[in-house]
Amino acid sequence: MSRNKVVSIGLLLWYVAVSVWMAQAPVDPQFWLIASILPAAFVVLLIATHRFLPLSHTSHALITAFLTLHTIGVHYTYAEVPIGLWLDQVLHLGRNHFDRVVHFSFGFLLAYPMEELFRLSASIRGWVVYYLPVMTVLGLSGLWEIIESWVARAVHPELGVTYLGSQGDVWDAQKDMAAALYGALLSMTLLLVVRALRGAETALESEAAFSE
Questions:
Q1: How far apart, in whole angstroms, are the C-alpha atoms of residue 57 and residue 61?
Q2: Do the Cβ atoms of 46 and 40 come closer than 8 Å?
Q3: How far apart are the two ends of the chain, measured CA to CA in Å?
Q4: Which one of 86, 121, 153, 187 is most buried, by most CB atoms within 10 A?
Q5: How far apart are CA 119 and CA 194, in angstroms?
Q6: Are 181 and 141 in contact (CB under 8 A)?
Q7: Rounded-to-integer distance, Cα 62 and Cα 133, Å
């Protein structure tokens, strides 16, 4: 069994364990159920396609980290996550910002798996390989906000407000999308810098070997 496979199985078991733990007595069971459907479907899709789209253990670790944050958020409902309430009290932020952290993490943690997916499946090269993940994150963030609005209108008003998690901010959807965009931009910028530095090191090693 390859190292990547062992790591992927370990990460899957971690996510399952966290999901089972967070499924115990959630603050709002109906909200937890609705908000858990898409992540569960995403995990099933990853399992079903792992032979055709073999992502690295780094990508799987980043995906697991994001899903863990989301699972914690839906257990408490984003507006009631304890660490967010604590930060609000200490820093006087005016609201629970845990949901904003998760939206930022959506871009920051998932941009690299998207880049890897585009690079391996479509053989994309050049600046486009950094551009596409950012635009995909932005598009998916917008789609998520639309889905949230559909759900909010389809269920009773109290659950709708809980599901949206706007906490009284009329610009909440736009700020969430911006947070995801900033996360994706930072992720791709760091990736570009790391690859540039590695390329420079390789060039210097080649030059030193040639001079010898």
A1: 6
A2: no
A3: 41
A4: 187
A5: 17
A6: yes
A7: 14
Dump the DSSP string for 136-160: HHHHHHHHHHHHHHHHHHHS-HHHH
For residue 175, what are its two tokens? 């700020």
d(CA 118, CA 185): 16
Catalogue the E-assigned strands of the chain: none
Tell me the C-alpha distance between 212 and 180, whole Å. 48
Question: Residue 98 is encoded by which pair of tokens?
Answer: 């845990």
Mean pLDDT for back-to-back runs of 10 residues, the chain (212 residues):
76 94 90 86 90 85 95 88 82 79 95 92 83 95 82 62 58 87 96 87 54 52
- Of 121, 118, 113, nearest to 132 by C-alpha is 118
- Distance CA(89)–CA(204), nearest Å, equals 51
The pair of structure tokens assigned to 165 is 């998690």
Q: Is the dihedral of CA 43, 139, 100, 151 positive or negative?
A: negative
In angstroms, the CA 66 to CA 103 distance is 9
